[in-house]
Design goal:
The chain is an alpha/beta fold. It is 34% helix and 21% strand.
Length: 817
Amino acid sequence: MKFVDVIVPLPLRGTFTYEVPAEWEDDVRIGMRVVVPFGKKKLYTAIICLIHTHRPELYDTKEIICLLDAQPVLRRPQLKFWEWISAYYQSPMGDVYQAAVPSGLKLESETKVQINPGFEAGQPLPAREQRVLDILSAGKIFLVSELNKQAGVKDVMPALKSLLEKKAVEISEELARKYRPKTETYVCLTEYASEENHLRKIFDDLSKAKKQLELLMSFIDLSKCLTNKPKEVSRKELLGKTAASAAVLNGLVERSVLEFYQVETGRLSTRDIAVSGMSQLNRYQQQAFNEIEALFKEKNTVLLHGVTSSGKTELYIHLINKVLNKGKQVLYLVPEIALTTQLTSRLQRVFGNRLGVYHSRFSDAERVEIWNNVLNDKGYDVIIGVRSSIFLPFRQLGLVIVDEEHETSFKQFDPSPRYHARNAATVLASMHCAKTLLGSATPSIETYFNARAGKYGLVELTRRHEDMELPSVLVVDTKEAYRKKMMNGHFSDTLKDKIDEALKNKEQVILFQNRRGYAPYIECKGCAYVPKCKNCDVSLTVHKALNVLTCHYCGYTEAIPQVCPVCKTPGLNTKGFGTEQIEDEIRNIFPEAKVRRMDMDTTRSKKSYGNIISEFEEGKVDILVGTQMVTKGLDFERVSLVGILNADNLLNFPDFRANERAFQLMAQVSGRAGRKNKQGLVVLQTTQPDHKIIDEVIRNDYAGMFNDECAERIQFRYPPFFRMILVVVRHREAAVLNRASQQLAADLKSVFGSRVLGPIAPAVGRIQNLYLKQIILKIENGASPERAKELLQAVADKLLSQPEYRSVTLSVDVDPM
């Protein structure tokens, strides 16, 4: 007898063993999906990870209910990769499964089934399926357990699965398949009409039905069905080219002359894309290319530290081409969907239909199709995508490129697994015996430290493409400007003058403010009341265009009050400013300029990123206002001026990485400025013009920033010299949370000693009605991280086993950002 160990999509550690019915013993394979019962009544789509003959001793096995696949939907290296993600990031395998696989490949266990009233069977159904339809025919909604009793069969699930695929039943809450392949209706001659003597008789019979005869002759001509090279003809194409009505076509179907059949067409574009050759590398790019190739012979991972606009993307294209010529695949990771929009067209010009794109703005059905295309080797050899792309079923990776590797967007924060795509990508590549190239103008401290220490190879590209100069940086002291009444609003006279000059020269401007919305909060001028979220301990952000106050943590919204609800003073004042307010203000200052805003509020739809970027590239937009989205590797050749409106909110953030991130953001957005024959300009507004980071940005002194940060971090035991693990404790009652976090910290200190900090309340101490406390664990680089995680898990399990704390939630974030 065979048994399978499966991963279920639940936050549970370990796998679970099920019995394989005799009918499927020869068919089951690792990586296939199976429907299994779990708990009292629930059913889940599980993934087979092991096949064996050992019956468990601790519990009676249940049988798998349904085998969903003829071939595995995962490759073996993926399961190994899942195991690494689970172990390193302290995440249950079920959570990894949930994050990795598109939800369209999962069947959800719920409860109710009803007949589809519009269903008409084209041919007789198998007896078991017909029995189920007969039971449902009265229109009543049944539970699956009731259907089992009524049908008198061992298990109704296989019949339900088949009926669902035929669209005979609608399953609102039980076994709801989220993905169905997109199909198109095609037309062909029936078996009867395909015979020559029968076709002659049909022509005679249609002599009085001229429209049907004309349509049949047109079909024969289009389809070439009587020749040796027949062609498929869709219903849409036939009706479009003949101008016949659907009624005429249906008449031929009723006469059994023509019949319909369905063809899976897919949702992804299959149009042929014209490709062109690669651009020639310049002397400095070619030198960097040669250095990377040489280092790949010694190192699995190489860091390309190239200044902004140095042509890193062109270098990537040449590396990709070399890997493809060896018959291998490439994964090109970018931090933001916005970057995939601009890069896709650039890479498609070289690689055509061999390029696939994968990110969350695609519908679930589209993601399933991309998954299946990669799995079944249907043409995608290069995948460009965001962090979730690391889970695709690659056949044989040859190269992984992580562009803008320093970006925090590569880190998954919630839900579990809280992985970092850059670090996970290096492991994925090693499992495929592939190479990893990390690229950035401002590498993360950890990555640059690894390169300097010899763990990674290091290649420097210090010249901008076509010898463009780095932009000059002009610092404006806004504190002094306000004091001298030279500035009211958010634009200094200097910045306004430079914007005016750029617009007169038909050049473009980027304005960077790292906060979306109109203002961070509003305040009553009478009693200082500030509206706060009812679910979180945070003030509500003003969104003037929608006339609402919104919580950016839980999404709670309410209308902007006209009078203070506490003291009834009319009108509340906005405090601070976001991109929406900057957009309004710049429109008033330069009413003739065409202004667009790019932030999370304006890029929610699938095509919004591409539309904004295309308009800016084509010169239809003069001024682009944006959050950090505008800093990440976008390339606009007409931009001559960048305005950083408030550097202080970057420098004053309470985090040990604040200086590093401030340097990265300011240096990256500054890199958007500059044209081939003209040096760009950055106007940087701050109340702290003497801050050391401002000086390092002006001098583009990454090495100076790196050395300063390392000196501080080794003193205070931070990465890259120590590993960090963040434990977040949550509960609805503050008193229970305090006791639980205190006990957990005490137990951890008894094991780890002074390596444990906390518990402390985070900056936002309540989110979605759950109070939070944080405990930080700092581990020396020389210590075993695996052993530390084992001890941490044991302490956590001990706490959660106590009745008082069973409703407490713990989350572990390894290498937090």
